[in-house]
Amino acid sequence: MSRAKDLAKKNSLRIKRKKRVRGKISGTASRPRVTVFKSNRYLSAQAVNDVEGVTLASVNSKAMNLNVSKENATKVAATFAESLKAANITEVVFDKNGYLYHGVVAAFADALRDNGIKL
């Protein structure tokens, strides 16, 4: 019972951080917001134009048959960078979605930079 409460508290704190950050950043057509979602099994990311409310590009590690790890985050980021370049996007605003900039999230962001996307 205690573990369930701890997980609920942890998730509610992440949601709180997410809302605080989302009040300060926004994506446009020329510089979309890249948001990352990480579960225990998969990693997904999408580039969002918040002005029009549309997703410009997205990637999901489940579709690539990859689980969550730093090595797989770099593979997912490389694929995502290709789809961003195909949409003529080279500069983005990074939204870590309330997660710590550590581990998988940091590996994903670094791999995006290595593939020519400005954060």
From TrEMBL:
Keywords: Ribonucleoprotein, Ribosomal protein, RNA-binding, rRNA-binding. GO terms for molecular function: 5S rRNA binding; structural constituent of ribosome. InterPro entries: Ribosomal_L18, Ribosomal_uL18_bac-type, Ribosomal_uL18_bac/plant/anim. GO terms for cellular component: cytosolic large ribosomal subunit. GO terms for biological process: translation. It holds the Pfam family Ribosomal_L18p. Belongs to the universal ribosomal protein uL18 family. NCBIfam families: L18_bact. This is one of the proteins that bind and probably mediate the attachment of the 5S RNA into the large ribosomal subunit, where it forms part of the central protuberance. This is Large ribosomal subunit protein uL18.
